[in-house]
Amino acid sequence: MSAGQRFTQVDAFTEQAFSGNPAAVCLLRSPADPAWMQQVAREMNLAETAFLVRQDDGFDLRWFTPSIEVDLCGHATLASAHVLWEEQELGPEATARFHTRSGLLTASREHDLIWMDFPATPAEPAQPPPELKAGLAATTRYVGRTKFDYLVEVESESAVRALAPDLVQLNRLPVRGVIVTAQSGHTEYDFVSRFFAPAAGVPEDPVTGSAHCALGPYWGAKLKKSRMVGYQASPRGGTVMIQLAQDRVLLGGRAVTVLRGELLH
Fold it and tell me: How many Cβ atoms are within 10 Å of 15's Cβ, its own excluded?
């Protein structure tokens, strides 16, 4: 990749800079070597770095953590859509179309709110392995497994916030990460969650859009709701709005640009 590649860093699922989940976005002039993309993601040292290449009917989109390429990422998709509109790569009323390892994903704008159309990844009940029990050391109400992660409901919002998991144990699980959730004790949110993914190089992800592809169906069934608001209770924190639509989940959030730069290598 030649020098002079621009990148933008965006805080996603937040209205305020220095909160939510930061992602780097690189709009490439042509496809890049995956090894180079992985090196850039390691250098950025964010939960995710997104790489886009324009196509005739949208953009090819790939996501890399500092350690691996992943199949689905919400906050870096939100950040990518935000950058495309902000830098006028798309018209203000245009729909962003992303071709990804999880199929076609789209994003549209509603004033300053961005809605993304993602596949639902519902959990199926599962027996908790010893590493999960040891890693969380929490009283669980439900353990399930999705296409990517374990989903664990614990007894209360305070239990979610107080978790100090053993990441060495969680790193041994054969999944991308572990979603821990509880019903919210506050009226502005339906549920809270946290997400730990040491095996993917992300000890705790600040706000995980793709986790809400499982959290939405789970809490929708429990609360008998199709529209919900989730709060990810990481130290940075962030809000994800949810609309259930059969086998799809619409994820809503805002984003703030915090940094622009240029890669020299």
Answer: 15
| pLDDT single digits (tens) 98-127 | 999 999 999 999 988 999 999 999 999 999
Q: What are phi and psi of 222, to 5 degrees?
A: -70, -40
How far apart are the C-alpha atoms of 189 and 160, rounded to whole Å? 14
Contact 191, 154 (CB under 8 A): no
Global pTM value: 0.95
Radius of gyration of the chain from its Cα atoms, rounded to whole angstroms: 18
Superfamily of structural domain 124-245: Diaminopimelate Epimerase; Chain A, domain 1 (3.10.310.10)
Q: What does the longest C-alpha to C-alpha distance in the chain come to?
A: 52
State the pLDDT at residue 2.
53
At 256 the three-state DSSP class reads: strand
The catalytic residues are 48
